[in-house]
Amino acid sequence: MNENHDIQQVIRFTVPWKADRGEQEKRNVRSFLREEHGISRSLLVELKRAKGIRLNGVPTYLDHPLAPGDTVELYLPEEKSENVEPEPIPFFIIYEDDYILVVDKAPNLCVHPTMLHPNGTLANGVVYHWQRQGISRKFRPVNRLDKDTSGLVLIAKNQYSHQQLAAVQRAGGIIRYYEAFVHGQVREDTGTIDAPIRRKADSLMERIVHEDGQWARTHYTVLGRYATFTHLRLKLDTGRTHQIRVHMSYMGHPLLGDDLYGGERMLIGRQALHARMLSFPHPRDKRMLSFEAPLPDDMATLLVAAHNKLSFR
Predict the structure, then answer these.
(1) In the beta sheet, which residues pair with residue 289?
(2) Is 20 labeled as catalytic in the residue annotation?
(3) What does the alpha-carbon distance between residue 31 and residue 112 come to, in Å, rounded to a whole number?
(4) Which CATH class is domain 3-77?
(5) Which residues neighbour 103 within 8 Å (Cβ) at sequence distance 6 or greater?
(6) Which of 104, 146, 148, 258 is catalytic?
(7) What does pTM read for this prediction?
(8) Angstrom distances, CA of residue 244 to CA of 150, 159, 180, 186, 252
(9) What is the mean pLDDT of the chain?
(10) Spatial contact of 89 and 124, defined as CB atoms under 8 Å apart
(11) Among 120, 149, 196, 310, which residue's Cβ finds the most Cβ atoms within 10 Å?
(12) What stretch or stretches form a coiled coil here (predicted)?
């Protein structure tokens, strides 16, 4: 992709040949972008308003017919970063290209500014990182992690990428694996928690398992059992707020350090939860990407200490 940081991003599609002559003749700019490339109606409306759709280099309209070999271009306007102030907040980049940014978020770092944390967030650091490259963009996280949860966060770098990845996420095409330390000994080596979650009636933050809640399902695998905790790998089929924390508490094994849901902070000062692996199709060429982030220092240190205690028994 050719990109001009000072003006806008340009995404190009070449119209391929179709064996069905009737389908070929019915193809126009709108159907090509909507049906063959999954461009949302809202994004098309925005691009049309900004005269950001071109056919073979010339501004066009959505009903214009297409022929094999035509080039359709989308000119995505540069954007201001809303109210996120650039700040030199350090963060670790796993991968970055013109469409996406994947970072390994440290624990105790908010993803986005809130009333309690208006600055000093990952968003502030990412906007600063882009500003130093001469890029002005909105901060668009595809997945979000709690402040105290560490690990992989996927960020879309433009409207097109965010719309494509959001559609993949709704269809369950973004695969996420977490690792957690939970209190006690989880008896079964593998299992599934299928229990709906909703907000607790008297709380703005806390969630509970309740029959009136939204469907939520979590799969777990035991990676190790130690004197006071169990090390789990978890896979999410849904992405409810606090899902893993709520489900493990409901199961009777709250996360270490998660005092909101019954955990204790004797061994670690935050919920022992890490977004370990993320897999998804690239928004532009649809090739599957997979990324992994090692356990952060606090969880890694605790795991080494647990292993060492076992070795002396």
Answers:
(1) 280
(2) no
(3) 36
(4) alpha beta
(5) 91, 92, 93, 94, 122, 126, 152, 153, 155
(6) 146
(7) 0.89
(8) 13, 29, 9, 15, 12
(9) 91
(10) yes
(11) 149
(12) none
Over the stretch 148-195, which tens digit does the pLDDT of each residue have? 999 999 999 999 999 999 999 999 999 999 999 999 999 999 999 999
The topology under which CATH files domain 92-311 is Pseudouridine synthase (3.30.2350)
- Give the distance between the most distant pair of CA atoms in the chain: 76
Per-residue pLDDT for 5 more than 60?
A: no
Q: Could you count the other beta carbons within 10 Å of the beta carbon of residue 192? A: 13
- Kindly report, residue by residue over 50-77, the tens digit of the pLDDT: 889 999 999 999 999 999 999 999 998 7
Q: What is the pLDDT of residue 22?
A: 61
Q: Which residue has the tokens 């095409």?
A: 173
Range name among 25-39, 52-66, 183-197, 220-234 with the lowest pLDDT average? 25-39
Cα–Cα distance between 146 and 107 in angstroms, integer?
Answer: 9
